[in-house]
Amino acid sequence: MFKMLAAAALLVVAQGDEFKSGIWEAREDFSALDGKRSLSQTLLSKNRPLNSLGRPSIGMLKLRCSGREIDAIVAVPGAFFGTRSMVVKWRVDSSPIREEAWLSVDCHTYAAMTINKPAQRLLDEIAMGRELVVQVHGYSGNTEIVFDLGDAQAAVNSVRQAC
Q1: Which residues are paired to 75 by β-bridges?
Q2: What is the pLDDT of residue 18?
Q3: CA dist., res. 42 & res. 54, Å (int)
C-alpha cells in the first residue's frame, strides 16, 4: 500500500511547470474493495531541489484520512536507497527545529515518507503556520523542500473532519 502511495505521489510531483505553490488540492476517494472513504489534501513545494538525476523536481506534502486514521506523506526529490526510516528535520515558520524518524520508501529519485503518530503535531503546527521546511539527508547530501502553506487551516480541518 505504501509503495502505491509513493508511486501516486510521484505522478503528482512529475507534472512539470503546471503547479501553484500554496494551493491545496482536495481529493475524495471510495474504495471499490470495502467502500471506505479516503480524503486527502495535497500541497506542492515552492522550491525545486535537484533529484538524483540532477533535474529540478517538485516536492509534495499530502495530508490524508483513510480508515479513520490521519497520516502525512512527504515526497522529497533526491537520491535515497532502500531506507526503511529516515531522519527528518522540519520546522514551521520560526518554531524550533524538530528531528524525527519517519518511515520511508524510495524510488531512487524520490523518497516518500509517512508519519502517523507524530502527524497530529505536524498538523497542529502547519494549521497555524505560513511556511513548512523539511530537510532529509540522502546519498547526495541534504535536500530541503519548502512549502508555502496557504490556507493550511482549512486543509487540516477538512482532513480531521473526515476522520
Answers
A1: 60, 112
A2: 53
A3: 25
Residue type, 109: T
> What's the farthest any 2 CA atoms get from each other in the chain?
44
Concatenated DSSP letters of 75-132: EEES---S-SEEEEEEEETTSPPEEEEEEEEE-SSEEEEEESTTHHHHHHHHHT-SEE
Contacts of 115 (CB under 8 A, 6+ apart): 71, 72, 100, 102, 103, 122
Dist CA 52 CA 25 (whole Å): 27
Task: Flag residues of the chain having pLDDT under 70.
Answer: 1-20, 79-83, 105-118, 140
Cβ atoms 77, 51 nearer than 8 A: yes
